Amino acid sequence: MLWWTLLAVLLTVSSGVVAVRPGFKARITQHALDYANQQAIDALAAMVPKASIPDQSGSSGDVDYTLKNIRITGFTKPSSSIKIVPGTGLKWSAANAGVNLHADWRVKYKKGWFKVSTSGNVDVSAHGVSFSVTMALGDDSSGRPAISSAGCSCSVGGVDIHIHGNIAFILNLFKHEIEKRVRRMIPGKLCDAVNQQINANAENQLKKLKVMTPLANKKFMLDYRLVSAPAFQSAYMETFHKGEITWTANPQTPPFSPLAIPPYTPSNNMLYLWIGKYVPQSFLYAAQQNGFLRYNLTTKDLPPDNRGFLNTTCSSGSCIGNLVPAVGKKYPNTTVELHMLSTSLPAVNMSPGKLEASFAGEIALYANTPSGKKPYLLTLSVSAIFNMSAGIADQLVKGNITGSSFKVAVKESAVGPQSSKRINLLVGLAMKLFIIPKMNTQGEKGFPLPVTGDFKFLNTQLHIMQDALMIGTDLQYTIKF
């Protein structure tokens, strides 16, 4: 995988004007481009010796010549850089590269009646080779990043030629022609290769980027498409992404818009990613609208040691029969189901150093009876706030519940008045035994970021900002030639 993959993936992750507010933003700093440049030169050094050069032939005055079996025998890495061109794109420049070639030659010399034919081989060293190419970046009709070469120039500083053969005056005539050929050939071949890498290889890599990512067994779809073209500043470039999660079978745009992503000045890391509040909030909207936030809790959902919680009869411990005595008396020696659902759109709140989510819902209790009928018992109204932590592991954003608080009220009861203290104990146990572990299991699965498994995050930090999570990281990538 060549360095274009590195650049392609970096792109999927401003003081420019953004027409549509993004839910997700990525910033690629000069540090990342310096790293990409190192990979680019390593790739170039591996590719150049493998380049195929066709035979060359021509004539000059009385000399007809042919160069065959031309091969590159050495490449000296240049000093190079990839720089941001504010308002335009990127520029890759290199200076003082060196290319060594070896070839077989044959010359025919004819002057009147005098004819000579001879052959040998030649070693050529081109030095002071420089090139510069500008890369224009934008977005295509599908919302993916797009890249194209906006011009390439190349020059050769000097050419040293060592011809091995006989008949000195013919070789001297021939030497000048070789130098002209080399000076024409190297810029054309080098720019052709660079343009091919940008316009074909890099563009093909960009087309492979997954801007639509399925979540939760494909029930949801995460949309990472660009909402505007990248913006270029002197020290970094930024990309702006939709960052919207919808229900796969029934995609609907939420009735709210992304909030402004807070400004952040430092650019010490290679890559910065902002996950706006809009991303999890759009997920919750899709989940609420499509009945995903409802669950019927039964004994099979609990660990074996805790399944007694749903019993209506128990000798000791906290079971439904003890917490709601009327249920134990009316339906002894059976179990209860808790039918849980969210009754309004949950809310995610992000503020500096603080991440929480609030839910409002109902828990309806039903008894299991030998006849198979499930008589209704009571309904509880519950509002809860969950305090959360977030971190990065395996290039995924992972979350964990660190604390919770809730309020409970009896909305309706078929088994008479209930003790407020016992009802709070009931909900507290449901939280402890099922709801929080279930949420933590989902949080451990992680939220995917627009990078590939070829990258490893280094020196990664996650900060909770106002209405956004901000990730700053360096990258490590093992190039494959």
UniProtKB/TrEMBL annotation:
| UniProt xrefs under SMART domains | BPI1, BPI2
**Boundaries of every Lipid-binding serum glycoprotein N-terminal domain copy:** 27-250
The set of disulfide-linked cysteines is C152-C191
Q: Does the keyword Iron apply?
A: no
Q: Where in the cell is it found?
A: Secreted
GO CC list = extracellular space
Superkingdom is Eukaryota
Q: What is the name of this protein?
A: Lipopolysaccharide-binding protein-like protein
What is the scientific name of the source organism?
Answer: Littorina littorea (Common periwinkle)
